[in-house]
Amino acid sequence: MIVSEINIKLGILGLWSSGKTSMVNSFLSQDVPGIYIPTIGSNIVRKEYQLESFQIRLNIWDVGGQKSFNPLNPAYFSNLDIVFLVFDLSNPKETLLELKKTYLKSLERSSPNSIRFLVGNKSDLIKPEDSEILLNAIRQYGIEEIPIIFVSAKTQDNLSDAFELIVFEFLKKLEKESKKRQIQGLSKEFLRVLGKNESDFDKLLVNLEEIDSNNLQQKITPQIVKKVIKMRKKPSKVTKIEEIASATYSEDFFIIDKIKSNVIKLFHNNLSSIQGLISSLKTTPIDYLINRINLINEELYGIKEDFEAKLNSLFTIKKNGLKSFKKGE
User: Fold this and answer.
1) Is the residue at 146 inside a domain?
2) Which of 42, 56, 98, 176 has its CA at a distance of 20 to 30 angstroms from the CA of residue 132?
3) Is position 222 within any domain?
4) Secondary-structure breakdown of the chain: helix, strand, coil percentages, each rounded to the nearest 5
5) Which tens digits make up the pLDDT trace of 31-81?
6) Alpha helices, DSSP H, located in 122-183
């Protein structure tokens, strides 16, 4: 039996140091680094879900937010099906303002019909005494009409559920827009595979009109406490971006070497993505083939642009050292 593929393009966007890459790594059960290494260009990884007659491939584009490395390259915003607009719950004002001022405008131009979620990361850092300030900041600077989810890359609270929710929402939209009989019922089949109900996803969403500082803590604290107890390991020291500015020569060399290694790794990830795109043509129905080829051509152009950005960034780092991103410029 030929199993058809459903390819979903998810863009993870937001300001540097909001924890986008940590979210992706934690979701895919990969190591979360104990040092801040900026993502150069984008990193493309995949998560697959198997249904009876369809394989769902979630193509995750983790886009670096460092301004000096051109995070607003149009190639990163084209043909996005779903978007995570990530902000830092420990720094909501600055990160939300950047989303509204910059990223949302680029999305409107390049992917106006994308499904969007506002994702507050680092919920493990929310203290009871800070809850009211946080909620006021989100109400003041948040983006209206976009659903909000709180997650933690560190403790994994709500993380897998958030990624599963967006696949579910995409399938519901696909069912609504498609007239093909085999597409109908996919969202419910996806829930059965996960062993979940739609109400499980409803609990993720933060209703700013109803929530206050007290029930905000009730919503996140019990889960965080449980998981923090489980991960009683001594955490590695996290080097913050401000500390990079005062790094010694040897520390500079270590961080630059890490960045270079990361760029090489991301490049290989993107090559793997190209192989996946080409391979997907084998299972594309004939009446969708031309449209699929056109989409793949656009994806290849985006990957080419990303590769050029990575090369330019490496040259910049080689010439200027860590000055090119010490202040997130």
Assistant:
1) yes
2) 98
3) yes
4) 55, 15, 30
5) 655 555 556 667 788 899 999 888 898 999 888 766 555 556 677 788 899
6) 131-141, 159-177
Q: Residue 238 is which amino acid?
A: V
Q: What are the tokens at 34?
A: 């104990």
The range of the structural domain enclosing residue 42 comes to 4-240
Considering the domain boundaries, does residue 104 fall inside one?
Answer: yes
**CATH number for the domain harbouring residue 33:** 3.40.50.300
What pTM did the predictor assign? Answer: 0.73
Per the structure, the count of domains in the chain is: 1
**228 - beta bridge partners?**
none
Q: How far is CA 301 from CA 112, 169, 284, 310, in A?
A: 20, 28, 20, 14
Mean pLDDT of the 282-293 span: 72
**The two structure tokens encoding residue 281:** 């043509």
| CA separation for the pair 147, 120 (Å, rounded) | 11
Are β-strands 54-63 and 82-88 bridged in parallel, bridged antiparallel, or unpaired?
unpaired
- For the chain, the residue count is 329
Tokens read off for 248: 């010694």
Q: Is residue 306 part of a domain?
A: no
CB atoms inside a 10 Å sphere around CB 232: 7
